[in-house]
Write a structure and sequence with these properties.
Structural class: mainly beta
Distance between the termini: 38 Å
Shape: elongated
CATH class of one domain: Alpha Beta
Radius of gyration: 27 Å
Number of helices: 8
CATH superfamily of one domain: Metal-dependent hydrolases
CATH architecture of one domain: Alpha-Beta Barrel
Strand content: 35-45%
Helix content: under 10%
């Protein structure tokens, strides 16, 4: 098969031509704005908080909570930073999530959320008057999955809701108006052939409703805005530059003069090019028809290489003095920043530090006292914060940057291995990244962005999202697992792009734990086997894997370790050898170094113990340049690939190849590799009554430095640069020194550009 085109990320080339300058925006503590935190929950199994205030001044916080494996919607009431009441909102427990809350001018509080009951996702609502909850109202009742609602109240106390409506691969935005507790008929806000996500709503002083959302079009995402005047929806208009990067997760606010401001995150550069991390962009539409397109980020912000790279999932609001406040999520924190005209404040960071364990965004309101109240799912718990936007410590230190509306620089596609070699019996080589993370665990981005990037940017044949099910006090809730499955299935297309249901089973480092292992399923109807509740050790995990025809793959074994003694050739058929954490073939690996170094935990150690497993690669990407300074490449997404030898591009064929070890690993490039002994394919165990005859075929993406054949972890043949092989190596070698008994063989490839590949081993019992 001719290798498909690989569209390199535009930012990789642009980064060579764009010179950044200046210092990053200073970071200060939110305590400088008299910020005070109140812990709302006492356990980590709570997510998606939202906030409102009624006319009495009480603060209402709603969120989803899991107890004994079942989710429910919970409401907390706070008065003067003291919790006064806690109520269960959803009448059902099971899979209930993504709540939103709003207070009407009359003081009635409305809560809307999504629940999966009877096998289908629908929207439900309740309202509260005088501390009493109304009966539950079912808002939708159709075969589609109705998810991720947004909610707003107009001046007449009518409730407007927008949400994602999903049928198969079709993602649309629908809306509803509730009048006097009576839900109206659902209506379409956005219904195109593209996927529409993440709606948000706002209302102006004239009672006009605004809806914004993002729309995925091939490799790009676009922000769209639509206005409703007197019940009539106007034509949607594009807010972000067309065909320009990943513009996602919009937020809306409208000031007293009718100026509409839309904020979203994007990998755009202010100059019009594309970058790696997302940053916040804003566009204001003034009442006189003029617009302003800008970003609070400066060039120095984009140079960051630590754990606070990028900003995503913005929420914006106007305070009572007309200042614009931006809340966002860097890769491993939450922050707020003030913008007044073209002046920008420092970044004020919420004071809880640490890796991972956070929710998606910060939800905020301006209180009756003029203070700003916000809720966030931070490390281990949900917190309410109050700070003073009129604090005398608020400073403005730099100006916003105007953003070019021109399209990004176009970079030609790069062809890799357009000419290959034939494999026997109709087999072909497919490439994919089966180890990626999103903001649902400790990465950046959304599940749909993961599959968009793999399919359209990286041109992979298959992909998996492997978010941690339990890590740094953050748990994948049942509603989140359902969302991952909905999105994953929607991106799969027969023979074109295959998605694999997966997650990461994450225990502590060896010897306290059992290392990290990704779990892969053959169908989308499986539950998570949690390392906290269901499978607390590898032995228990293996038993569950076998019961469900699933497999697991250990990774970064030399850094966090793995329990080689618990390996199982059926349930754990392969191990990851390379990722953004480096290459873990052996201690001191070259030319690709590795993170950490636990003796006895490297791939060669596992093979020497007699374990039989194949080798795969994966990016382990979290959306961070150089993986926050400890990675091997600027782009994590180009740090590891799995090559699969299969007869078709389908989930069944891909997983069958992994289970039978017909796979190999590369450090991110599409090196083509064929390794056979006595006519049998890589990964097999065979018996030979003669000296093993070894066939090696390699086609690199750059000139070959060396191809090394190893037997029992020792090199027995080295070919390549010294033999003027160029980009390709084809060699038949008879191992005349093989003694009687069992041996394992594998191939290591090193290119002149230091990219690498490794075949899965073969096990040969030599009988002479």
């Amino acid at each position: 098969m001719n290798c498909p085109k690989w569209l390199f990320f535009t930012f990789l080339l642009i980064s060579l031509n764009v010179a950044f300058s200046g210092e990053p925006t200073p970071i200060r503590s939110i305590s400088e704005l008299d910020g005070i935190d109140l812990r709302i929950t006492n356990h980590p199994f709570a997510e998606y908080p939202d906030i409102c205030q009624d006319k009495t001044g009480d603060i209402f916080i709603v969120y989803s909570e899991m107890i004994d494996g079942k989710e429910r919607i919970v409401l907390k009431i706070v008065h003067d930073l003291v919790m006064t009441d806690s109520l269960q909102v959803s009448e059902s427990v099971g899979i209930e999530g993504f709540p939103r809350i709003v207070s009407c001018p009359s003081g009635v509080v409305w809560i809307v959320w999504a629940g999966k009951r009877g096998g289908n996702w629908d929207l439900y609502a309740r309202n509260m008057t005088n501390s009493a909850l109304s009966p539950e109202i079912r808002l939708t009742n159709d075969p589609a999955a109705d998810l991720h609602p947004a909610i707003v109240s107009d001046m007449q106390n009518n409730i407007w809701i927008a949400w994602e409506r999903v049928e198969g691969a079709d993602f649309d935005i629908y809306g509803m108006k509730i009048i006097d507790n009576h839900p109206g008929e659902p209506f379409s806000i956005a219904d195109t052939e593209n996927k529409e996500f993440r709606p948000t709503l706002a209302i102006d002083a004239k009672n006009c409703i605004y809806a914004a959302w993002d729309c995925q079009k091939s490799e790009n995402y676009e922000i769209l805005l639509r206005k409703c005047v007197n019940g009539k929806w106007q034509t949607a208009k594009s807010v972000s530059p067309e065909a320009s990067g990943k513009n996602m997760a919009p937020s809306l606010t409208i000031d007293a003069k009718g100026k509409v401001t839309v904020a979203w995150h994007s990998n755009l550069l202010a100059s019009g090019g594309l970058d790696y991390n997302p940053w916040i962009f804003m566009k204001s539409f003034n009442a006189d028809g003029t617009t302003r397109f800008f970003t609070p980020a400066n060039d120095g912000d984009r140079q960051k290489l630590g754990e606070d790279q990028g900003i995503e999932f913005p929420n914006i609001l106007m305070d009572k003095q007309g200042k614009l406040w931006l809340f966002g999520r860097p890769s491993q924190n939450f922050f707020v920043q003030c913008i007044q005209s073209d002046q920008v404040s420092p970044i004020y960071r919420f004071d809880i530090e640490g890796w991972g364990g956070r929710g998606q965004d910060v939800r905020a309101i301006v209180g009756q006292d003029g203070k700003i109240y916000s809720v966030r799912r931070d490390l281990r718990a949900i917190y309410l914060n109050r700070f003073d936007p009129a604090s005398k410590n608020l400073a403005f230190i730099q100006k916003t940057s105007p953003v070019s509306a021109k399209p990004p620089i176009q970079v030609a596609e790069k062809k890799e291995n357009s000419v290959g070699f034939s494999l026997p019996d109709g087999y072909q080589i497919y490439f994919g990244d089966i180890h990626q993370h999103s903001a649902l665990s400790d990465g950046m981005g959304t599940p749909d962005e993961c599959f968009t990037r793999s399919r359209f940017n990286m041109r992979h044949d298959f992909a998996a999202l492997t978010d941690h099910e339990w890590f740094t006090q953050n748990y994948i809730l049942p509603s989140e697992w359902e969302w991952i499955k909905i999105v994953g299935q929607s991106f799969s297309e027969d023979s074109v792009f295959t998605t694999i249901p997966a997650y990461e089973w994450t225990t502590g480092r060896v010897p306290k734990g059992f290392g990290h292992k990704n779990v892969y399923f053959s169908s989308w109807d499986k539950p998570i086997f949690s390392c906290r509740f269901d499978a607390t050790n590898t032995t228990d995990l293996v038993a569950l894997l076998k019961q469900n025809q699933a497999i697991a793959i250990p990774h970064h074994v030399g850094w966090t370790g793995t329990d080689w003694e618990a390996m199982d050739s059926i349930a754990i058929p392969v191990s990851e050898i390379v990722s953004s954490h480096g290459a873990f073939e052996y201690m001191g690996n070259e030319p690709i170094a590795h993170r950490g170094g636990i003796p006895g935990s490297f791939i060669q150690d596992g093979l020497a113990r007699g374990n039989r497993f194949g080798l795969v690669g994966g990016s382990d990407g979290h959306g961070l340049k150089w993986h926050h300074g400890v990675g091997t490449k600027y782009s994590e997404w180009a740090s590891g690939l799995t090559g699969v030898i299969a007869k078709e591009n389908s989930r069944e064929a891909i997983l069958d190849a992994i289970k039978h070890r017909r796979v190999y690993a590369t450090s991110g490039t599409r090196i083509r590799l064929n390794f056979q002994i006595n006519g049998c394919m890589m990964g097999e165990s065979i018996t030979s009554t003669r000296n093993p005859e070894i066939q090696i075929d390699v086609l690199g993406t750059a000139k070959i430095h060396y191809v090394v054949l190893l037997r029992d972890n020792q090199p027995i043949l080295t070919i390549g640069k010294d033999f003027d092989e160029g980009r390709g190596v084809r060699r038949t070698f008879v191992d005349e020194t093989a003694t009687a008994g069992e041996h394992f063989y594998y191939i290591r490839v090193i290119q002149e550009d230091n990219e690498m590949a490794w075949s899965s081993p073969m096990w040969v019992e030599v009988r002479k």
